């Protein structure tokens, strides 16, 4: 019923959208006394030089902008072979709703005419008021890699051994693609990002304290992965292919296509990815006596995994420009992945004197098929000449996964003779998740430089997880009722927000926001009849202040409150096996964690940005290794509170005309306090992350890059890890009249990205190490084609199911 109401509201907004006249700006551009057909015209707002709209000069030399809000503007014109030209400043007001800009005559640029090509190079990292932006193509070594590998090199971002993403040492990151759902989270999100070719990416936006318009989810912030947008009319696109070699080969292919004509814009994105990787995970565990705490048994475990699979994705969409002010769009995303994993495990069990007593061997195989379809309907309209804007989204997503597991265990004594019969376990773990969501947002300019935003959102999620385990004994299949489980979870979140941004003086500006979210959740374990109901309402205020001291120095202060809700998968209590003695399990008792974040920043010439942050997180959700008898299991829990103080410095400095340097340093101190079971914990550590990228222009068409990353030892909940780092390099060569690019990259050249750690509390005494296939060489080729003219890019809304789908599969 709620979804029906939301859908009705969506179409009611469309049919009742107000159509009024708005300000118009136009003029003529010429070159050599002829119309400058195809030249790009940008409408610039004077107060901040922001580009409001783009237009193309037609065959008569005319350009036009419509639906422009009151204010002071000027236009700039660019064309290949000509110098950039600007108009004088003019003002659009109630008294002057139509402006004709005096003719702009372009002047030839002899230097540009004589060069091979004119390409504007974006910096690798841009520091903006509310976010840090990474331009993916600005780094040679990003090409031919995956989106996850791009994220690993982003300022302050880390990816742990399971593929979980953290920001400035804090977990709880909301990941988006084009402001829209990533479809997955946790390990499955990591797999999806590994399968996403970096050639499809444009920018990575990192927001540690997002405004109230965004979902409050993500205690450490939001990472938005923006894919490339084609902004030319007619037919255009690109194709890419890459081959990678580590221990095993990997391939990736992608194709982007866009066709825009008159009122219709059609677009599609197709990709395929094949991955084959190995990994080794080792655990050394001491089994302690409950009474004396002395070592009774020593478990030495080693798991060697081989994973391979194919992933396919297709994105198909259409934008319909009903009027100059109204756009209606639809997007369908299709994803599928088939993968297999074999895990060969050996566990050596010794006594307290380190004398070998027995050996347990396990072979675990898994076959996984996952599919997803998500749809979005979106609507955007300008309501009047002042810039009032209404946007709305309706989303539906359907995710299905079938996982088949088979485990065989054999047992021998120190002499290699069997001391008990081998046993087998078979598991079938299907999963179904449905997401319904709708939202509406309203923008209202109040006066010059002051604007008010407000919006509503509602979402409904239903997950159905079944785990059916059968043991095989003497050829007979017997249902294992202790391990089998059927868990159903339903959740409804309703939200409302308001946001006001305004200048306080010539040098001071501010933004204030408040978001309210009401959550209603029910979980049922159908096998046991256990049930929980949760209902709570939370407020999330945000505040931003900016002080522009002069043209070189900007100061900022911001505050925000955020939440990380448990992922749907982490609430599911079913068991996933690594071997006979080691498994992971969900926790239906998890509570959401809430954080309060404060940041103070200074930027000098947009080349050096320094930020000091303080974060306090309550009921932080951490993966915790626990021990019961001889079994060790990994389970998420609200183990403690976290307090973090951090300092980050981001630099982007051109050293010479052919050498640019980017260095990022993040230093933070984490302090965890709380309890695990009945054991109190109080852990603290200071750590830092150092990233450096050096780029070199070797010739007009060739560039090179060296990059490196080092992270000192840090706390990952109760796990203390050792330092880890890597070095990479790459070359890029333009070919085929700059329509094609060949790139060669090497990642983790010295194979130093190896993780080690230790945890010790209560009856848990464990050390671990992990080696993955990170030493990889890639060669890639990209070819772009275009037949059309540059026009303004389509502004697509973010969709309404961002948070819900981001929690899938975690």
What report would you give on this structure?
There is one protein chain. Helix content is 5%, strand content 66%. The protein has two domains: 2-114, Immunoglobulin-like, CATH 2.60.40; 125-806, TonB-dependent receptor, beta-barrel domain (Maltoporin, Chain A, Beta Barrel), CATH 2.40.170.20. Mean pLDDT is 85; it is low at 1-21 and 112-120. The protein has five helices and 46 strands. With 810 residues, the protein is mainly beta. The longest helix has 14 residues, at 2-15.
Largest sheet: 30 strands, mixed
Content-based structural category: mainly beta
How many helical elements?
5
* CATH architectural arrangement of the largest domain: Beta Barrel
Q: Ends: how far apart?
A: 29 Å
Q: Roughly how many Å is the radius of gyration?
A: 28 Å
CATH homologous superfamily annotation of the largest domain: TonB-dependent receptor, beta-barrel domain
Please tell me the overall pLDDT: 85
Shape: globular
Number of strands: 46
How many domains in all? Answer: 2
**Weakly predicted, low-confidence segments:** 1-21, 112-120
Relative helix content = under 10%
Strand proportion: over 45%
The first-level CATH class of the largest domain is given as Mainly Beta
